[in-house]
Design goal:
alpha/beta; Rossmann fold; six-stranded parallel beta sheet; three-stranded antiparallel beta sheet; 10 helices; about 35% helix; pantothenate biosynthesis; EC 6.3.2.1; Pantoate_ligase_C
């Protein structure tokens, strides 16, 4: 019988477990999530095993990173199914707090990230997102006292913001990015993929294909500005409402003109029906 992970509903109980593991000489990894777990999340648990003996997955749909017009209430919540997946993956603990545990009465502190949080990518379309995300991730890192934390590269700007925040605030947790896990046809795994109709799901693979082809063209010497313009036209022609397709310096997320300023990361966000998809690809 697969052993269920320990379920922590409050910070004190989680910290006691972490202290016991540490006393036994076991490093602890944190994998922050909002639930609706898929194979991409499970890949983060597997990746954590290279650096830590114990793994805690947090499941918390964080209200402060959703704008009023976004899908907070509709965000998929599948806690029992998530627990089954965590058990199968051998996860040691699940931190699943109530909102009152994360934001008790009187809570009034905010984090206002700069640098990569103001790169003109996701922040153009979700102006409050990174402040709320940085707030909850800083809290989770502090609450868990984890030695290391693992995040998927699919949310590439988010990962850059977290790395900058951890460095700026002297948070000792080591931050690791894990390559995006993809469906067999190349679509990046995402909890929001369940919103796609059958026709939209068939169209959605366009994003990863255009990213891959664009990276290949830049490596072959095509001008970055021309490749980016062509990619935008192709995505729009495939039926998407394009938010952005950008080539950026992979560490700073600053605009980039060519390979000499690299490494380059291509980033895209586009809407298909009611679903907003993001993805990215390295130019290596």
């Amino acid at each position: 019988m697969t052993e269920q992970p320990l379920i922590f509903r409050n910070i004190a109980v989680m910290r006691r477990a972490v202290a016991q593991w540490r006393a036994a000489g076991e490093a602890v990894a944190l994998i922050p999530t909002m639930g609706a777990l898929h194979a991409g999340h499970i890949s983060l648990i597997k990746a954590s095993r290279e650096n830590a003996r114990r793994a805690i997955v947090s499941i918390f749909v964080n209200p402060t990173q959703f704008a009023p017009n976004e899908d907070f209430s509709a965000y998929p919540r599948t806690f029992e199914a998530d627990l089954a997946k965590l058990a199968e993956a051998g996860c040691d603990g699940c931190f699943a707090p109530m909102a009152s545990e994360m934001y008790p009465e009187g809570f009034s502190t905010k984090i206002l990230p700069g640098g990569p949080a103001l790169a003109g990518l996701e922040d153009r379309f979700r102006p409050d997102h990174f402040a709320g995300m940085a707030q909850v991730v800083a809290k989770l890192l502090n609450q868990s006292q984890a030695d290391c934390a693992f995040f998927g590269e699919k949310d590439f700007q988010q990962l850059a913001v977290i790395r900058r925040m951890a460095a700026d605030l002297d948070i000792p947790t080591a931050i690791f990015g894990v390559p995006t896990l993809r469906e067999p046809d190349g679509l990046a795994m995402s909890s929001r993929n369940v919103y796609l109709s059958a026709q939209e799901r068939a169209q959605a693979v366009t994003l990863s294909r255009v990213l891959r082809d664009s990276a290949k063209a830049i490596r072959a010497g095509a001008p970055v500005v021309d490749v980016v313009a062509r990619a935008g036209r192709e995505i729009t022609a495939a039926g998407f409402a394009l938010d952005y397709f950008e080539a950026r310096q992979a560490q700073s997320l600053a605009p980039i003109a060519g390979l000499a300023e690299g490494p380059i990361r291509l980033l895209v966000a586009a809407r298909l029906g009611r679903t907003r998809l993001i993805d990215n690809w390295p130019v290596e």
